[in-house]
């Protein structure tokens, strides 16, 4: 199953790209509208890109009233990414979306203000779990001492699945002025630089939880996607690659079929958790 | 494809295949070999067989694009965004530096109107030869000193120039610039603050008309 990474596609301006996906993940929706950060917002680095968009979004009222109805008309199932600054905000967002015809909710619990990751992840996921019966994914940051422990905390609190990983903080300086290229200074690093980091996080989270995982981080080809599946992803999402190649979902899907077939797997998911050897651990909880 | 030197700038000429040339002021995303992200470039000239892009090779992306060898391929997506509105009376093109890039094509489509082009030095001003009927000003003189009254201004250049032109010419059409990752509305990276509001240049612009 191929998704987009939250924030890397606007299905309303690029429906042709969204239609190549198995599900569309929205930009993170927050309780109130956010205009986003001051420019400059993006910069290319040697092995990735930095962004500091700042969760620009219309807020939950604008999203439910205006954006979501138009997204639902496009066809692909919709996953809504939600983000807040306290557990109760996540709970309110999830409660608000509980009766909407969306396929899943993704909790963006990887924002930089999460100070003590494991406890906060558990508190946020538990609050969201109590507020909705929707399939609930927790999107975790790899920039923690033990991503497996954060994954286990999300699982204990009732997450149905995990999305791994979000960006990690980086800085780029202007060659001439030596000042930060991005308006706010630092930004989130994505692209090829994230690939081994995402693989390690998926590998650890699978070991700890056995939950379904959406692998995200630097996927550019079918071979990269197959790596994530082998590490323990049951689905994967495309992010930065979409910027350079709007046809990436269809291309990567084809390449993945070929890569899997070349290794003797009947389907790409035949390689699921192959990196772990032996039978997979008993799942704590799985969604259909 | 081939690359011509025009002072410090480079004119990249690509075989256009089935690409449309679009409206002047629209842009194309050009993928520099070996780089992660494509770069937004407005179209400089269009012939039946070629599309030309005027590029200032200042960073790794623009250097990779202008260093492409004959016969090599560059991936191109476009035309994208909103170009200049062409139904104007007494047009005047006002450009600064590499901001003159869309003017050769724009000038042709508008019937070679007068232009005022500003550059930081004589070397850069060589590019003015691409734009017919152009008056050239070199720093410390500024283009804003050469804009006469009664024109419909179409401008492209550095942000301080655009803001100054907007002050002098209410109703001017301004072509803005920002780093872009995608060019088609996906990344939200190309926001620029204009009149107190953040606008996404790829879908709202890059040409924005200032309320008169």
**Low-pLDDT regions of chain B:** none
Q: For the CA atoms, what is the radius of gyration of chain A? A: 18 Å
* Architecture (CATH level 2) name of the largest domain in chain B: 3-Layer(aba) Sandwich
Question: Biggest interface: chains and residue counts?
Answer: A-B, 31 and 26 residues
Name the average pLDDT of chain B.
Answer: 94
Q: What is the count of β-strands of chain A?
A: 12
Q: State the end-to-end CA separation of chain A.
A: 13 Å
> Outline of chain A, from the CA principal axes?
globular
The structural domain count of chain A equals 1
State the helix count of chain A.
9
What strand order characterises the main sheet of chain B?
10-9-8-11-12-15
The CATH first-level class of the largest domain in chain B comes to: Alpha Beta
Oligomer: heterodimer
Average pLDDT score of chain A: 93
Report the sheet with the most strands of chain A, covering strand number, pairing sense and barrel closure: 8 strands, parallel
Assign the structural class of chain A, choosing from mainly alpha, mainly beta, alpha/beta, alpha+beta, or little secondary structure. alpha/beta
- Main structural class of chain B: alpha/beta
Shape of chain B: globular
Radius of gyration of chain B: 16 Å
Commentary on this structure:
The complex is a heterodimer of chains A (288) and B (212). With 288 residues, chain A is α/β, with parallel strands linked by helices. Chain A has one domain (2-37, 54-174, 191-276): TIM Barrel (Alpha-Beta Barrel). Chain A is built from 9 helices and 12 strands. In chain A, the strands form 2 sheets. In chain A, strands 1-12-11-8-7-6-5-2 form an 8-stranded parallel beta sheet. In chain A, helix 7 links the parallel strand 11 (213-216) and strand 12. Chain A starts with a strand and ends in a 26-residue tail after the last helix. Chain B is built from 5 helices and 15 strands. Chain B folds into 2 domains: 2-80, Elongation Factor Tu (Ef-tu), domain 3, CATH 2.40.30.10; 91-209, Nucleotide-binding domain of ferredoxin-NADP reductase (FNR) module (Rossmann fold), CATH 3.40.50. The radius of gyration of chain B is 16 Å and the shape is globular. The longest helix of chain B has 10 residues, at 159-168. With 212 residues, chain B is α/β, with parallel strands linked by helices. In chain B, 16% of the residues lie in helices and 32% in strands. Chain B has a 6-stranded mixed beta sheet with strand order 10-9-8-11-12-15, with helices on both faces. A 4-stranded antiparallel beta sheet of chain B has the order 1-2-6-5. In chain B, strands 4-3-7 form a 3-stranded antiparallel beta sheet, covered by helices on one side. Chain A binds chain B through residues 7-10, 13-14, 17, 27, 35-36, 38-44, 47-49, 51, 53, 56, 175, 191-192, 240, 242-244, 246, and chain B through 31, 35-38, 59-61, 77, 178-182, 184-193, 198, 203.
